[in-house]
Design a protein that fits this description.
The chain is α+β, with helices and mostly antiparallel strands. Helices cover 43% and strands 13% of the residues. It has a domain of 40 residues: Double Stranded RNA Binding Domain, CATH 3.30.160.
């Protein structure tokens, strides 16, 4: 029995291995990068990163080779379509237990990954990494056409449609196409008659949140768009642009 946590083991060798976790002793060192491991088997698995060795082949004849045995088991799940891990809340199934753990945070609201700069928390580590780039100013995804950088790869994908003209999202009613799915959703509200954004002052409803924001300036008197030539202010940018033509003479 372990004197630290009380866990019992059938063999003394297993107890010795376990106690290394408490001692933080990592006697097996990688000769390439110096990283230490509790057990030799973990060192051997790690060294495949450096050697590129992938000893496990997929038995389903897809030709893919894999490194750790557990990776092979996961891969086989993708071949067979097997999803043995079911969510007890909604019934959705997953091929890997780790995917189920991440999914269940949608139901529990758990957000274990906290930002050290602002304290904002996330349910998935990858979302924390994306968020931290806003603090660091990192924009690793660059557009090959104009050089503009983006925090997320998905943002770059959307941006590149400006250059390619691609519009993959089509309205099923009028066949109008859009480059971004959110614009299709907004458009579909025209056909459905949905106006989900309601003014708390007068009850008037709008299709888009931006339209509600502009409307609310009628009640607040806010005029955020200022003419640099004469100082006159406007509630809409379009009104400012129209006004500025009186100074430039453009029609």
């Amino acid at each position: 029995q372990c004197g630290v946590c009380g866990k019992s083991f059938p063999a003394s060798a297993s107890l010795v291995k376990h106690q290394k976790l408490h001692l933080e002793e990592k006697p097996y060192k990688c000769g390439d990068c110096g990283k230490g491991f509790n057990w030799n088997s973990h060192l051997e698995r790690h060294r495949r990163i450096h050697t590129g060795e992938k000893p496990y082949s997929c038995p389903d004849d897809c030709g893919k080779t894999l490194s750790p045995r557990v990776e092979g088991v996961r891969h086989q799940g993708t071949q067979t379509g097997e999803k043995p891990y079911g969510c007890p809340d909604c019934g959705k199934s997953f091929g890997q237990n780790s995917a189920l753990v991440k999914h269940r945070r949608v139901h529990t609201g758990e957000k274990p990954y906290g930002c050290g700069d602002c304290g904002k928390s996330f349910g998935v580590r990858s979302n924390l990494i994306k968020h931290q780039r806003t603090h660091l100013g990192e924009k690793p995804y660059k557009c090959g056409d104009c050089g503009k950088g983006f925090i997320q790869k998905s943002d770059l994908t959307k941006h590149r449609r400006m250059h390619t003209g691609e519009k993959p999202y089509e309205c099923g009613v009028c066949r109008k196409r859009f480059s971004v799915s959110s614009n299709l959703i907004k458009h579909q509200r025209i056909h459905l008659g949905e106006k989900p954004y309601q003014c708390s002052e007068c009850g008037k409803s709008f299709i888009q949140r931006s339209e509600l924001t502009i409307h609310q300036r009628v009640h607040t008197g806010e005029k955020p768009y200022r003419c640099p030539a004469c100082g006159k202010c406007f509630s809409r940018s379009s009104h400012l642009n129209r006004h500025r033509r009186t100074h430039t003479g453009d029609r």
